[in-house]
Design brief:
The complex is a heterodimer. Chain A is an alpha+beta fold. Helices cover about 35% and strands about 30% of the residues of chain A. Chain A has 4 domains: about 80 residues, Winged helix-like DNA-binding domain superfamily/Winged helix DNA-binding domain (Arc Repressor Mutant, subunit A, Orthogonal Bundle), CATH 1.10.10; about 45 residues, no CATH class; about 90 residues, Roll (SH3 type barrels), CATH 2.30.30; about 80 residues. In chain A, a hairpin with a 4-residue loop joins β2 and β3. Chain A is elongated. By secondary structure, chain B is an alpha+beta fold. Chain B has 4 domains: about 80 residues, Arc Repressor Mutant, subunit A (Orthogonal Bundle); about 50 residues, no CATH class; about 90 residues, Roll (SH3 type barrels); about 70 residues, no CATH class. Helix content of chain B is about 40%, strand content about 25%. In chain B, the strands form 4 sheets. A 5-stranded antiparallel sheet of chain B has the order 9-8-7-6-10. A 4-stranded antiparallel sheet of chain B has the order 12-13-11-14, with helices on one face. A 3-stranded antiparallel sheet of chain B has the order 1-3-2. In chain B, β7 and β8 form a beta hairpin. The chains are: A alpha+beta, B alpha+beta. Chain A: This is Protein pafC. Chain B: This is WYL domain-containing protein. Chain B: It comes from Actinoallomurus iriomotensis. Chain B: Pfam families: WCX (PF25583), WYL (PF13280).
Chain lengths: ~300, ~325
C-alpha cells in the first residue's frame, strides 16, 4: 500500500468516527476495507500526531477501549478532504449515465444535484465525459414489469449472427447496462440456460400471465469478467484485412490483432457459430479474406457464386 | 513507503490546517516532527511533501505575513468537504454508481470518493438497484491520458490509424471531451492540423497520447456539445435515394427490420424498398445476405453489387 493511500484513509478515519454516534473497530475496518489490526495501527498513528511549536501539543485524542472508537478531540481534521476532480467525475459521470435510463426514479437527480454542490469546482470537468445509453423505453418498461412481478416473458428475438428471428420464453433475472447497451439476463426455456438478450434486438415482447421459474442452477453472468467469453471449444477464425477492412478489429471481440505492415492486419477470433463470419467475409469482399479455417473460406466462395447466379 | 513518512505528512496537514497565519518553512520545520536538521535535506524533503499533498488534492496555499519569507497554510474552507446529507435512497444510488466503472483509473477514483463521503457521514452500505446492473469499461489504453488532457485542458498529440490508410498519421488535437457511444469511445475537439472540429475513435489511436502544450491552453467554445458532435460524425448521411430489392421469404430478417414497403413478389420472393445515401455502404451490407437478396435497381447499385460479389471470388 502506498503512503498516499494510507494518508487518505487516515484523513478520512477521524471524520468517519466523528460523524457517527458510535463506531466499533470492526465496523470501521469493514468500511475502510482493511483488517482490524491495520485499523488499530491507523488509530495509534493518529493518536501520535503532535505539533512541537510554538507550544507542543497533541491535537487528536482518541481511544478504542472495548472495541468502541471514541474521538474526543479531532480539531482540524474533523471533516473529510474535498473530492478531487477525478473522484467527482467518477461518481457524476456514472450517475448521469444511470439517469439516462427511463423512469429511473428521482433519487438520482437529487443525488446528482447534491453531489455537484458538494464537489464545487471539482465537478466541472465531469461534464466533458459522457456515456450514451441505448434503450428502447417501451421494451425496457415491459421487461422491468416482468422482473418486478416475477412473470415469464415471451419474445421474438433477432439474432444477427444467424439473421434469424427466434421465438423464446424467458424467465427474467435482471437487467444489465454494459458499455451503453442494455441487456436482459434470463433463463431461456428454449436453450435451458442463462442467456443475455440485447434489448434493441427484441422485436416483440409480451409479459405472460405465468410465474417465472428460475432454476437453482441458473448462474448470473459475472459482469466484471466481461459479458462474452469465448469457450475453448469455439472455432478459431483467422482473417487478413486491408487498410479499408481494419474496422473489423474495432467491431468484433478479437483474441489477437497483428499488424502486417502498410496498414494491413491479421485478426484471430473465436466463435461458436461461424455463420456471421461468412456474412462478414461477403461484406468485406476485397477488403479482407478468411485465412483459416479453409472450409469456411470455401463456403464464402460458394455463397458468393450462388448470389452472383441471381444476376446471370 | 514508510510509516514515518505517512506520519510526517499527517502532522504537516494537521499543522497547516491548525494555523490561520502563513507558516514559513522554518516555522514548519520546528512544529512538525520528523524533518531532518540539515537545511538542504530539509528543503528537498519539504518540496517533495508539498508536491505529494497537492497530488492528494490538499489545497496548499502560499502567501506571506508582512515582511516574512513565503509561508504556507491550508484554509479549512478550501480543504473540507462541504456538508452533504443524503436520504437512504440517494445513498443507495450512489453505491450503485460507484460500481459502474470496471478496472483502472475511474474505478479507483470512485472508491476514493465513496471513502470521503462515508467519512462525511453518508452510509452507502446498501447499494441498491434501479433494477439494473450497470458497467462501463474504460479499457481503451488511450482513455486515462485523454481524460487527464480534457480535465487539465491540455492539447495532445498521438498517432492515429484511420480506416483505409496504409500508415498511421501524427495528429494534434485540442480535446474538448470524451464520449462513449454505442459501446465505443471517441474523443472530439479542435484538430490543429486541419483547423476543424474532428472526432477520433480511441481504439484507432496507436501508442502513447502525449501532452502537446500547457495545461489550461485548450478553450472549449461556449455551447459546444461533444455528444452531439460525436453523434453527428457517426450517423450516416440522410437517405437521398432508394433501391428496389428482392428478399427471400423467411430470410434476410436483418434487412426487413428497416426496409420500407415489403410486399409479396413472385415465387419465393418479397419485394422491398431500401433508402440509402451511399452505394458502397449499401452494397457491402447487402452482400452479407448472400443469395437471400437480389438488387433489382437502380442500375448503378445492381452493377456495384455484381462487382462486389466478383471481388469476393477474385
Amino acid at each position: 500500500m502506498s503512503s498516499a493511500d494510507r494518508l487518505t484513509r487516515l484523513l478520512a478515519l477521524v471524520p468517519y468516527v466523528v460523524s457517527r454516534s458510535s463506531v466499533s473497530v470492526a465496523e470501521a475496518a469493514a468500511a475502510f476495507e482493511v483488517s482490524e489490526k491495520q485499523l488499530i495501527d491507523d488509530l495509534n498513528l493518529l493518536w501520535c500526531v503532535e505539533l512541537r511549536a510554538p507550544d507542543p501539543y497533541c491535537p487528536i485524542d482518541l481511544s478504542y477501549e472495548g472495541g468502541e472508537i471514541v474521538v474526543s478531540e479531532a480539531e482540524s481534521i474533523s471533516r473529510p478532504l474535498r473530492l478531487d476532480v477525478d473522484e467527482a467525475a467518477a461518481l457524476l459521470i456514472a450517475l448521469r449515465t444511470l439517469a439516462e435510463i427511463p423512469e429511473h426514479g428521482d433519487a438520482l437527480s437529487r443525488v446528482i444535484a447534491k453531489l455537484e454542490v458538494a464537489a464545487g469546482n471539482a465537478a466541472q470537468p465531469s461534464s466533458q465525459v459522457s456515456v450514451q445509453v441505448e434503450v428502447r423505453p417501451d421494451i425496457l418498461l415491459q421487461v422491468r414489469a416482468g422482473l418486478d412481478e416475477g412473470r415469464r416473458l415471451r419474445m421474438t428475438y433477432y439474432v444477427p449472427g444467424r439473421d434469424e428471428n427466434t421465438e423464446r420464453d424467458v424467465d427474467p433475472m435482471r437487467l444489465l447496462l454494459v458499455d451503453g447497451w442494455s441487456y436482459l439476463e434470463g433463463w431461456c426455456r428454449r436453450a435451458e440456460a442463462v442467456r443475455l438478450f440485447r434489448l434493441d434486438r427484441i422485436v416483440e415482447l409480451e409479459v405472460l400471465d405465468v410465474a417465472a421459474r428460475i432454476p437453482e442452477e441458473a448462474e448470473p453472468v459475472d459482469v466484471d469478467r466481461g459479458l462474452f467469453r469465448p469457450s475453448p471449444d469455439d472455432t478459431k477464425v483467422i482473417i487478413e484485412l486491408t487498410p479499408s477492412g481494419r474496422w473489423v478489429a474495432d467491431h468484433y471481440p478479437c483474441e489477437s490483432v497483428t499488424e502486417l505492415g502498410e496498414g494491413r492486419l491479421r485478426v484471430e477470433l473465436r466463435t461458436r457459430d461461424t455463420r456471421w463470419v461468412r456474412r462478414l467475409a461477403l461484406r468485406l469482399a476485397g477488403d479482407g479474406a478468411i485465412v483459416a479455417p479453409a472450409d469456411l473460406a470455401e463456403s464464402v466462395r460458394d455463397d458468393a457464386e450462388r448470389a452472383l447466379d441471381q444476376y446471370a | 513507503m514508510s510509516r514515518r513518512k505517512t506520519e510526517r505528512l499527517l502532522n504537516l496537514v494537521v499543522c497547516l490546517l491548525a494555523t490561520r497565519r502563513y507558516l514559513t518553512a522554518e516555522q514548519i520545520r520546528q512544529a512538525v516532527p520528523g524533518y531532518p536538521d540539515g537545511s538542504e535535506a530539509f528543503k528537498r524533503m519539504f518540496e517533495r511533501d508539498k508536491e505529494e499533498l497537492r497530488e492528494l488534492g490538499v489545497p496548499l496555499e502560499t502567501g506571506s505575513e508582512g515582511e516574512e519569507d513565503t509561508g504556507y497554510r491550508i484554509q479549512r474552507q478550501a480543504y473540507e468537504l462541504p456538508e452533504i446529507q443524503l436520504e437512504p435512497d440517494e445513498a443507495a444510488v450512489l453505491g450503485l454508481a460507484a460500481r459502474v466503472w470496471q478496472r483502472a483509473s475511474l474505478a479507483e477514483a470512485a472508491s476514493g470518493a465513496l471513502l470521503k463521503l462515508r467519512a462525511a457521514g453518508v452510509d452507502t452500505a446498501e447499494a441498491a438497484s434501479l433494477g439494473i446492473e450497470p458497467r462501463v469499461d474504460t479499457h481503451e489504453p488511450a482513455f486515462p491520458a485523454l481524460w487527464r488532457a480534457v480535465r487539465d485542458r491540455r492539447p495532445v498529440a498521438f498517432d492515429y490509424q484511420g480506416i483505409g490508410r496504409s500508415a498511421p498519421q501524427r495528429r494534434h488535437l485540442e480535446p474538448w471531451g470524451v464520449v462513449s457511444r454505442r459501446g465505443r469511445w471517441y474523443v472530439a475537439g479542435h484538430d490543429r492540423d486541419r483547423g476543424q472540429v474532428r472526432v477520433f475513435r480511441l481504439s484507432r489511436i496507436l501508442g502513447v497520447v502525449s501532452g502537446d502544450g500547457s495545461a489550461g491552453e485548450v478553450v472549449v467554445p461556449d455551447g459546444v456539445d461533444v455528444r452531439e458532435i460525436v453523434a453527428a460524425s457517426s450517423t450516416p448521411a440522410p437517405d437521398r435515394r432508394s433501391a428496389t430489392v428482392r428478399l427471400r421469404q423467411g430470410a434476410a430478417h436483418g434487412i426487413r427490420r428497416w426496409a420500407a414497403d415489403v410486399r409479396p413478389d413472385e415465387g419465393e420472393w418479397d419485394r422491398a424498398e431500401l433508402g440509402f445515401a451511399d452505394v458502397d455502404r449499401l452494397v457491402d451490407y447487402l452482400a452479407g445476405f448472400a443469395d437471400d437478396v437480389v438488387v433489382i435497381g437502380p442500375p448503378d447499385v445492381r452493377d456495384a453489387m455484381i462487382q462486389h460479389l466478383k471481388a469476393v471470388l477474385a
